[in-house]
Amino acid sequence: MRLFKSNSPVMHLFTVAIAVLLWLPVISNTDWQPAIADGTILFHNLRQMLLPNYWTAQMIAFLLMLIEAFMLQRIDLKFIIVEDKVITPPLFFVLIVSMLAQRYNILPVMLANLLFMLTIMRTFDSEHLPEQKRYYFESGLLLGVGALLYPPLTAMLLFVLATQFVVRFFDIREFLASMLGFVLPFGFFLFGMFMTDQQGLFWDRMEQFFETQDFTLNLSIVQIAAICYMALIVLIELVVMSQYIRMYKVTTRKYFMLFFWLIIISVAGFFLIPCAGLTMLVFVAIALAFITSLYFMQIRRNAVGEILFLLLIISSFLVVYLF
What is the predicted pLDDT for the residue at 36? Predict the structure, then answer.
């Protein structure tokens, strides 16, 4: 892991190179079609008006993934979540998200995730800056806009609520401000539909929330083994870091707790929200990018950490290229 403790431009280019290699099957196929077309009726109407095909939409999703990966680096540097200067959060994010690229149209969730990451920054800022109600209103507004494109983002209102309990303290006025911000985009959207006599589109969008998404996967034995290895590493790092996290400073412990809740909320949303699919993994990727980085940074034997790290990269490639 010594290599990844460098913050040089060369190491950032390494992350981009890994992303391109993982997305190469999609990038090289201009006739690509998703097995599952995610997103709302509003999203698909906008896509048909603005984008010529699904491949173009997926390339925009690729660029968004890179932007969001390096936004994680910005979040890390701003709030000092991983105390060492490392480039691993963007890399881990890319490894996880790229496994969805061949099967799913991930542009809706990447747009929603961009707004969610801005929400994270606003809620984290509220610990140190005045006028917290404004920050929570803006957080709810961002989530509301995102939910119009990707309904399962609604579950992240619970994350905003969790930040109040973990980062500072619960204030009912701040929570109501976030709720007001969340419903505001829906109000404007419904008003626009009534003004154009298309209110049926709004109710169709509401019905989508209760439509179960198909997430059946046909995996080979090698892919199953690779996914099991990654799941095992995640389980180990969650157990280990829950014990070691008390050795870190208070703010790092708070962020670890929030990311742990982000995983729980995302998994619960996957099972409880009918329209949620495996694209919920994108939100889990944010949490795992930081938790995995913390885990690898505390491994004392560099050789062991580097082998485990290399196997993670190989596992991602196996999942992608054996589809």
Answer: 67
Residues pairing with 104 in the sheet: 36
The predicted model scores a pTM of 0.91
Looking at residue 123, its amino acid is: T
How far apart are the C-alpha atoms of 274 and 229, rounded to whole Å? Answer: 28
For residues 256 and 286, the answer to whether their CB atoms sit within 8 Å is no
162 falls in which pLDDT band (50, 70, 90)?
Answer: very high
For 306-323, the pLDDT digits (tens) are: 899 999 999 999 999 987
Residues 6+ apart with CB under 8 A from 262: 159, 283, 284, 286, 287
| Buried b / exposed e along 142-173 (16+ C-beta atoms within 10 A) | bbbbbbbbbbbbbbbbebbbbbbebbeeeeee
The residue assigned the tokens 């409880």 is 272
Contact 78, 29 (CB under 8 A): no
Residue 195 belongs to what domain range?
2-321
For 308, half-sphere exposure in the C-beta direction (CA atoms, 13 angstrom radius) is 22
State pLDDT tens for residues 247-267: 788 888 889 999 999 999 999
CA–CA distance, 218 with 216 (Å, rounded to integer): 7
**Domain count of the chain?**
1
Token duo for residue 226: 């690779």
Q: Please give the radius of gyration of the chain, using alpha carbons only, rounded to the nearest integer.
A: 20
E strand or H helix at 314: helix 302-321
| Beta strand segments in 101-217, E | none
Give the model confidence (pLDDT) of 47-89 as tens digits.
Answer: 777 788 889 999 999 999 999 999 998 898 888 788 666 778 9
Residues 6 or more apart whose Cβ sits within 8 Å of residue 88:
1, 4, 82, 289, 292, 293, 296, 297
